[in-house]
Write a structure and sequence with these properties.
The protein is an all-beta fold. Helix content is 1%, strand content 49%. Strands 40, 42, 43, 45, 46 and 47 form a six-stranded mixed β-sheet that branches. A hairpin with a 2-residue loop joins strand 8 (126-127) and strand 9. It is elongated and about 125 Å long. Keywords: Signal.
C-alpha cells in the first residue's frame, strides 16, 4: 500500500503534517487552504466525516489508510470539493474501518473543474508553506452488532435460490445453507460471503434445486481466511451466548403445473427371473418423485408391488426390482408420485396426503403394460417394424429373443443376401433390444428377415455352412420379418414467450432425413439471418438457439430447413416435395433483457460464472474462470444481472476520476443515471436490470466495481454498436 501514491512527489510526502488537534487552527479568513478531520466514531464503519475544508480552487479531499511504517498509504475514498469552504462532508470508503485505525486526510487542488480532475493535474494543497494533510483515529464500536439470523419458511422462486430474511454479523462471515439429516445441519449446498454488518433479504444461490417441503438450515461462520471460499473445517460457526447462530426453515416449490410422463412397453420375462420390470422412459421436471408399480385390480392400480425414488430429470430404460417375483402373466400399472414430504420414504395410502399421485391435465401420470412369463427352453424371436431415428443408418434392433444357448442372429435382405450377424449368449435366456450392425446403410422402406442360427464352434465367426438355423418342435426355422423406414424431413415450432432473455429461442423438434441446416429469420425481413444450426440425420428435440439481436414483442419468425447441393444452400423438402418451413410468434414481456449475467466471486475478485444465452459468452473476456473480466456491452441492448455476492459486493458502474469514482449506475442507489427513463433501471436485491443507452455511453461508462471493495473487485467495460446480422 505504501507505493500507492508513488506518483506524488517524495518531497511532499516527507514534509511534516499539519496537526488537527492541539492548538486551534487560525480562522478561515486568514487561510487559503485548510482541512479539519476530527478523531471520530463513525455511525457506519465505511464512512468518515470531514469537519471542514477550505480550498482556493476546486479539488478533492482524499482519505488514506496508514502503511506499515505509519505513512499515508492506499487511498480509501475521496469527495470532490468546489472552491471555497464546506463543512460536515461525508466520505464513503472502499472498506469497513478497524477499531483504533490511523487514517490520513489530504486536500488536492486542480486548475480545472473538479468533475474533470485528472492525476496529472494533482497538486497537494499548500498552506503557509506546508502540505494540507491531517491524521486522525477512528473508534469502531464492533460490539454494537449482535450476530443473528432470521430464516422464514418460503416458496423457492427460482427453485435453486433461498432468501434469508435478516442476517447480522460483527465480523466478516459466511452465510451457509445446509441440508437436514435427522433434524441437524448436514451437507453444504450454498454459501455467500457477508462483510460485517446487518442485511435484509439475502439471496443465496444453491448447488441444486430445492426439494418440495425440504427442511434447510442457515448458519453464520467466521471467515477465518479472507479471500478464499467457504471452508467448513476452518470457518467455524458464530456463537452467541454459547449457542450457534442457526436458523431453520422449510422451502416449497411454486404452485406450477407439474411436467411428468412415463412410458412402459409390454415385456416378456423368464419364469425363472420374473423379479423386475423395465420402464422405457420417464420425465420428472422440477421435482423428485417415485415410480410405483401396482398389480391390476379391475383396470385400476391395486396392490403395491414396488416403489423407487428418482431425482428430477429424464430417465431411460430403468429396471425396478419387484418386492416379490411374479408367478403368472399379469397386467401392471406404473404410476408417478411426488416425493412429499422429502423424507425418502414412500408413504402414499390415498388418504394421508403424502407422496401424492402426480396429475397432469387432470389425469394421473400412469402407464399400463402386460408382462408375459415365458419358458426359455422354447426358442422365440420377435422383430418389429422400425423407424431409424438417429445415426448410424446401418443398425437395426431385434425386439426380443428367447433362447438359452449360444447362437447367432443373422439379418437377410429381400434377395436373401446376408447383411450382418450378431452373436448371442446363453444368458440371460430372455434378451431384448438386440442391436445388429449391417454391412450397408438401410434403404427406406425395405423389408428384412432375421433368422436364429446355432453356434457350432463357440468363439469363431459366423459360418453359414456350420452354424445352421435353429428349428422348433415342428422343424420350422425361428425367424421374423420386419420393415425399416428412414426419417422424412419435418419441423415443429410453437409460439413462445421469451421472459428470461430476448435472444434465445427453442425449436420443438426437427426430423432430419439428411444433413440439414436450420435457419431462423424474421417474416418482416427474410434477408437477415437471426440464427442457424447444422443438424445431422436424426430426431432433434428442444433445440436452443441464440438469436443475433433482441427480438421484439409480437414478431413473427420463420424456421426453415436447408440442405447443401454443390456448395449452395437449397430448401429441404418434405415427403410431399414442399419446403420444410413453419412460422411462429414470439412474446417479449416489457423489460426482458437481451443478455443475463450471473456474477459470483473468487476471493476478492468478481467472476461472471454464467451468461445466458450461451451464444454470447464471448462478450466476457476469459470466460467463467477469469477474475474481474473485461465485458463488452452493445448500445441499446438491455441487460440483467444476478449478483449472488450482492450482500458483500454490490455493483456500481461508472468511470474512475483520479482518486475517486463517478457512479453512473448503481445496484443499490446513488448512480447519477439510476432514475433515467431510457435506462429503466430495476433493482431487486441481488438482481439488476438496465438498458445501455447512448447517454450512458456518452457519460463515459467504462468500468464496473464493488462498492465495498472497489480497489480490488473491478473490471473494464467496452461499449460498441450492436453486432451486424449476417445476410442469408
Amino acid at each position: 500500500m505504501k507505493n500507492a501514491l508513488r506518483w506524488l512527489s517524495p518531497l511532499l510526502l516527507a514534509v511534516p503534517l499539519s496537526a488537527c488537534g492541539g492548538e486551534d487552527p487560525p480562522p478561515f479568513d486568514a487561510r487559503e487552504n485548510l482541512l479539519t478531520i476530527d478523531d471520530q466514531s463513525p455511525e457506519v464503519p465505511d464512512a468518515i466525516i470531514v469537519a471542514s475544508v477550505l480550498a482556493e480552487s476546486a479539488g478533492y479531499v482524499v482519505i488514506h489508510d496508514a502503511d506499515n511504517e505509519g505513512e499515508p498509504g492506499e487511498p480509501l475514498g475521496s469527495i470532490a470539493v468546489d472552491a471555497g469552504s464546506a463543512t460536515e462532508l461525508t466520505v464513503e470508503l472502499a472498506r469497513p474501518l478497524l477499531d483504533q485505525e490511523l487514517l490520513y486526510g489530504s486536500l488536492y487542488l486542480s486548475d480545472d473543474d473538479a468533475e474533470t480532475f485528472e492525476p496529472n493535474d494533482a497538486l497537494l494543497a499548500i498552506d503557509r508553506g506546508e502540505p494540507v494533510r491531517v491524521s486522525f483515529t477512528v473508534s469502531i464500536e464492533v460490539g454494537e452488532i449482535i450476530p443473528a439470523l432470521v430464516a422464514e419458511d418460503q416458496i423457492a422462486d427460482p427453485i435453486n435460490e433461498v432468501v434469508i430474511s435478516r442476517a447480522a454479523s460483527n465480523v466478516n462471515a459466511w452465510l451457509v445453507i445446509r441440508t437436514d439429516e435427522d433434524g441437524e445441519p448436514a451437507d453444504v449446498i450454498g454459501s455467500a460471503p457477508l462483510t460485517a454488518g446487518t442485511y435484509d433479504n439475502v439471496r443465496i444461490a444453491l448447488d441444486r434445486d430445492v426439494l418440495d417441503e425440504e427442511l434447510l438450515h442457515a448458519s453464520l461462520h467466521i471467515d477465518a481466511a479472507p479471500e478464499d471460499a467457504f471452508d467448513a473445517a476452518s470457518d467455524i460457526v458464530v456463537m452467541v451466548d454459547d449457542a450457534p447462530v442457526i436458523g431453520s426453515f422449510i422451502v416449497t416449490h411454486p404452485e406450477l403445473q407439474p411436467v411428468a410422463s412415463i412410458s412402459v412397453d409390454d415385456q416378456s420375462l423368464s419364469i425363472e427371473a420374473a423379479d423386475s420390470v423395465v420402464i422405457a422412459g420417464a420425465e420428472l421436471q422440477g421435482f423428485a418423485g417415485w415410480i410405483a408399480i401396482y398389480a391390476d385390480d379391475s383396470g385400476e392400480p391395486g396392490e403395491l408391488l414396488a416403489s423407487e425414488l428418482f431425482p428430477a430429470g429424464e430417465l431411460e430404460n430403468i429396471t425396478i426390482p419387484l418386492d416379490a417375483p411374479l408367478a403368472d402373466d399379469a397386467t401392471l400399472h406404473a404410476r408417478i408420485h411426488q416425493e412429499s414430504p422429502a423424507d425418502g420414504n414412500f408413504t402414499f395410502d390415498g388418504e394421508n396426503g403424502e407422496d401424492p399421485v402426480v396429475i397432469v391435465d387432470e389425469e394421473a401420470v400412469m402407464a399400463t403394460f402386460d408382462v408375459t412369463l415365458i419358458d426359455p427352453s422354447a426358442p422365440q424371436l420377435t422383430a418389429e417394424d422400425q423407424l431409424l431415428e438417429s445415426l448410424p443408418l446401418h443398425e437395426v434392433t431385434i425386439a426380443e429373443l428367447v433362447y438359452d444357448q449360444q447362437g447367432w442372429l443373422v439379418i437377410y435382405d429381400a434377395e436373401n443376401t446376408i447383411l450382418g450377424a450378431v452373436a448371442v449368449a446363453a444368458e440371460p435366456a430372455v434378451k431384448a433390444n438386440i442391436v445388429a450392425a449391417l454391412n450397408r446403410d438401410i434403404i427406406h422402406g425395405e423389408e428384412l428377415r432375421v433368422v436364429l442360427h446355432n453356434d457350432a464352434a463357440a468363439g469363431d465367426a459366423f459360418d453359414l455352412s456350420a452354424d445352421l438355423p435353429v428349428l422348433d418342435a415342428t422343424e420350422s426355422g425361428i425367424e421374423a420379418s420386419f420393415t425399416v423406414e428412414l426419417l422424412e424431413n419435418s419441423l415443429e415450432a410453437r409460439d413462445q414467450s421469451l421472459d428470461v432473455v430476448s435472444t434465445e429461442l427453442r425449436i420443438d423438434v426437427v426430423h432430419a432425413g439428411e444433413s440439414v441446416i436450420l435457419e431462423i429469420f424474421a417474416e418482416s425481413d427474410e434477408s437477415a439471418l437471426l440464427a442457424e444450426a447444422a443438424l445431422d440425420y436424426g430426431i432433434h428435440q428442444d433445440i436452443v438457439l441464440t438469436v443475433g439481436r433482441p427480438l421484439e414483442d409480437g414478431e413473427t419468425l420463420i424456421a426453415q430447413l436447408f440442405t447443401r447441393e454443390e456448395g449452395e444452400r437449397v430448401p429441404a423438402e418434405d415427403e410431399d416435395g414442399d419446403p420444410v418451413r413453419v412460422t411462429f410468434d414470439v412474446t417479449v414481456p416489457e423489460g426482458t433483457p437481451a443478455v443475463f449475467f450471473t456474477f459470483s466471486a473468487n476471493g476478492l475478485n468478481y467472476r461472471v460464472s454464467a451468461v445466458r444465452p450461451a451464444g454470447f459468452a464471448s462478450i466476457v473476456e476469459g470466460g467463467s474462470n477469469a477474475d474481474n473480466p473485461a465485458i463488452t456491452l452493445f448500445n441499446g441492448w438491455r441487460y440483467g444481472i444476478n449478483n449472488i455476492v450482492y450482500s458483500a459486493n454490490p455493483l456500481q458502474f461508472g468511470l474512475p476520476d483520479f482518486l475517486s469514482y463517478t457512479v453512473l449506475l448503481s445496484q443499490e442507489s446513488g448512480g447519477s443515471y439510476d432514475n433515467d427513463s431510457q435506462i429503466n433501471r430495476v433493482a431487486d436485491g441481488q438482481r439488476l436490470w438496465f438498458t445501455l443507452s447512448q447517454d450512458l455511453i456518452d457519460a463515459g461508462l467504462n468500468t464496473y466495481r464493488s462498492r465495498k471493495t472497489p480497489a480490488l473487485m473491478r473490471g473494464t467495460i467496452t461499449t460498441q454498436g450492436a453486432p451486424a446480422l449476417p445476410a442469408r
